[in-house]
Amino acid sequence: MPLVIYDYNKCTGDASCADVCPVDILEGSENERWCKPIDDEVENQEAINQYYDKVNDSEEQVDVIIENEMPECVECLSCEAACPHEAISIEPS
Ligand code: SF4
Ligand code: SF4
User: Fold this and answer.
1) What are the backbone angles phi and psi of residue 34, rounded to the nearest 5°?
2) What is the number of domains present in the chain?
3) pLDDT for 40-81, tens place per residue?
4) 34-46 b/e with 16+ CB inside 10 Å = b?
């Protein structure tokens, strides 16, 4: 299964990654500070927990890297190419 990996020490929340994803599995956070996977699209619950525990409510950079197992990712790498800060990467299945 592909891994969608966010580095929250680099992400600025501009949402370029979510805008280009052809299968719409990424979204901006409610506070518009981050991007994240859509919760229902993530297979490993611990990744969701990690995001809400350490990242969601923060306004500052967070030294956390989260590996999300996302079965619907088609591994097009568009998000990687669109990100201006190398904050998202894909590990193909
Ligand atoms: S494009 Fe990069 S910096 Fe922008 S929200 Fe996505 S991961 Fe974060
Ligand atoms: S690799 Fe493609 S399908 Fe997968 S999250 Fe990135 S933009 Fe979406």
Assistant:
1) -135, 165
2) 1
3) 999 999 999 999 999 999 999 999 999 999 999 999 999 999
4) bbbbeeebbeeee
3-state SS of the chain: helix, strand, coil percent to 5?
Answer: 25, 20, 55
Nearest CA to ligand 2 atom 8: 21
Residue numbers of the domain that contains 48: 3-91
pTM for this prediction:
0.97
Q: Is 38 in the pocket of ligand 2 (CB under 6 A)?
A: no
Alpha helices in 13-57 (DSSP H): 16-20, 45-54
Tell me the C-alpha distance between 86 and 10, whole Å.
7
What is the CATH number for 70?
3.30.70.20
Probe ligand 2: pick from 25, 27, 66, max atoms within 8 Å of CB?
A: 25
Dist. CA 16 → ligand 1 center (Å): 6
